[in-house]
Structure formats: C-alpha cells, structure tokens
Amino acid sequence: MAKPVILVTRKLPDGVEARLSSLFDARLNPADDPWPRDGAEIVRRAAEAGAAGILCAAGDAMDARTIAALPPSVRILATFSVGTDHIDLDAARARGLVVTNTPEVLSFATAEIAFTLMLMAARRAGEGERLVRAGAWTGWAPTQLMGVTLEGKKLGILGFGRIGRELAQMARGMRMEIHYRNRSRVAPDLEEGAIFHDSDDGFLAAIDVLSMHIPGGEATRKWLDAERIAKMKPGALVVNTGRGTTVDDAALVAALRSGHIRAAGLDVYDGEPSVFPSYLGLENVALLPHLGSATIETRDAMGARCIENLEALLMKDQEPPCRVA
Ligand code: 8YV
Hints:
The chain is an alpha/beta fold.
C-alpha cells in the first residue's frame, strides 16, 4: 500500500523529519520557505501532492477560505503547536477535517520562557546586556540598573491551564504568592494554594506581576487594554507568552512610557513576525522571538505528538489522541 502523503509546511528538527519520512511520503520544507503564510499556496501544494494530511504550524494561513479549498484527499491537519488560533476550527468541522495539536509536551518549556521574561523585566536584564555589548558600562555603581525583586510579590496568572500551573510551580520557588484568573476555579490539587479570582477587577488590583496564558482569537482580542491596565497597581510587570493578539500594544506602550507598568516581557506579537514598532525604542520591555517551546527536547516531543496523531488517523484508523476538531 502506498504511504499516505503528508505536506509539511515548516522545517522541522532532523529527527522528526527522518521519522516522518520513514512512516509517510513526507513532502518537507527543508529550506523553511515562507509559502505556508499563503493559503492559496497551501491549497496548490496539497492538491499537487495528493496530500492526506498537512503538518502545519502557528502562523500558517489555515483560515476558512483555505480549508474550504483544500482537495478532498486531505483528511487531517496536525498542527505543530498547542495553540489553534491560526486554524478556523468551525470551517474544519464543516468540511469534516480532523484537527490535532500538541498539548502537554510544551508546558514546561513555555513556562520557562515566561519565567525568563518575568526575571528580565524585574531585573532589567536586557538593558544590562545592551549596556555591556555597547561598551557603555563604566563600572559597578550603587544605583545602576536597580530593578525589583520577585520575592514575596503576587504573581497573577491569567489562564490557569498546564502552562500557567507550571509557571506557578516555578514561582513558588521564588516565594511568590500565586493568584489566578480562569474561566472557572480548578480542583484543589491543581490549585496548590493559588488564590482564584472570579472578577478581572479584583484580580488585576491584587497582583504585582501579570503573566498571560490565554489563547488567541476574537474572544480574547486586546484583552489587556487601557482600561484593564489602569486597574493594575502602579509599577506592576506584564509578561505575555500566550498570543500577541491579547494585548492592546498602543495601551501597553503608553503605560510603559508613563511608568504605570514598570516593565514588560513579550514573546508573542500581534501580526508576528512584525513587532509593534514603539516597543523597539523602549528600554523597559524585553522582547523575545516566540521562543516559548523552543527547546530541543520539546520540539522533538511536539514532532512525536504530530506523528502519533497522523499515524492514528491515517495508518491505524484510530481516533487521534490530541484531536481538537
Ligand atoms: C509553537 C506556540 O512553537 O504551541 C504553540 O501554540 O505558540 C509555540 O510554542 C509555535 O506556535 C509553532 O507552531
């Protein structure tokens, strides 16, 4: 029997590509060309290859138009991400297209980046690095680049899913007090003493650091806007490793300029890889290029998850383990 054809939109780790090629007729993107941003090109390549599955990633143009135009041979969209905001899930359901993602395996790595950004914002690590690299450091000084400690601070986790809870564990080690806002309260064994807030206002007023872990999409667009920022304590910190669309960039820039928000750390951007230009001129914002899941271990595990899902549907006629639509 011919191996099912899988259209792979991005360059993946070598080991993942090798396993994909051993199991499937994998059409790889070894040069990491940017064609997956163009829905018409995804459709064209899927039709040309007779693809049974597409292995895509965040940022690929899996909108309603693209999905509706996919050739009938395509049965599954396996995204190399936990986030699915780049895929129109309703359009996928309407077309009978199975969609899978890669949960769990990236929670710790993403929490690590949230933790990194929290420390960079609190301790002005980016500013310090730029100073040294610019050859502008004139020596230790008692008042140079003083930041704030995280010890004893109240960490507010917006979205208390797997990533948020991993961050809570790390922050307990820094003796932070954990607060969270979530659709609903989680079970006590998952809460481990974290304080649940049932209103945005109460949550925002209570915390010293906000770490955002909510999904993208219309429902969360510009969740952190000027009104909500105004409800935060003066001097609070903001970190976002979820999706860039959840922040009103102009409002955050204004708050960073006024000092109402002392500092921020961002790993994700609305319209990335474009970055809201005003961030680039600000010293008090740490900017990373969407590194959340970028560890060797995690990217291998994400690849393994995609393969499990593709194998289940296309080779074993089973329900894929990480089905989201
Ligand atoms: C991915 C992410 O690496 O999984 C997600 O949702 O945001 C990242 O960690 C990226 O989206 C690649 O698809």
